[in-house]
Specification:
With 164 residues, the protein is α/β, with parallel strands linked by helices. It is 52% helix and 21% strand. Helix 1 packs parallel to helix 2 and helix 3 crosses helix 5. The longest helix has 25 residues.
């Protein structure tokens, strides 16, 4: 399975493309799409959307996996992130790619086995699973990788359940 994983945002949007079966995973690429705070929001949305559409066209993922919205105290930020998520959903649907969503607790459970794991614990598991040094990565990029690993593990679990 090939998955494009996204930690949605408009200032910084983490993206990762992973391939695997849930037991063995390979990171094909990862990045953090960054937009300037000086740009109007529609231009930032366009930049993120264009980058995501390019990733889909380049890697032809079986699924797009995104993290569900985590509400903050800043309503304007939450609304803009919700708009980014809507755009991602539109792009995935328009390109006929399955969309899956995972909440932060599900991601923590998939990677660490504990729903209240902290960011450092999740990052350490990303490093161990992929044998990867994340020290130079922005958090959003590592978060996207965690979403992708969750999608691969979930796909494996679903496949095992369907064999029973």
């Amino acid at each position: 399975m090939n998955v494009l994983a996204i930690d949605p945002g408009y200032g910084r949007c983490g993206v990762a493309v992973l391939e695997g079966d849930g037991s063995r995973s390979v990171l094909l690429t990862s990045a953090c799409i960054e937009t300037s705070a000086k740009l109007p929001f529609p231009e930032r949305l366009l930049a993120v959307g264009t980058a995501i559409a390019t990733l889909i066209d380049t890697y032809h993922p079986d699924a797009v996996a995104i993290e569900e919205l985590f509400f903050t105290n800043n309503a304007k930020t939450a609304l803009h992130v919700a708009e980014v998520r809507g755009m991602i959903m539109f792009i995935a649907a328009s390109k006929k790619v399955t969309l899956v969503e995972y909440n932060p607790v599900a991601i923590k459970i998939a990677l660490t086995g504990y729903g209240r794991a902290n960011k450092e614990q999740v990052t350490k598991m990303v490093e161990q699973i992929l044998r990867l040094d994340t020290s130079a990565m922005i958090d959003d990029e590592c978060d996207a990788i965690a979403v992708g690993l969750t999608a691969l593990a979930s796909a494996k679990y679903t496949a095992l359940q369907s064999q029973k």
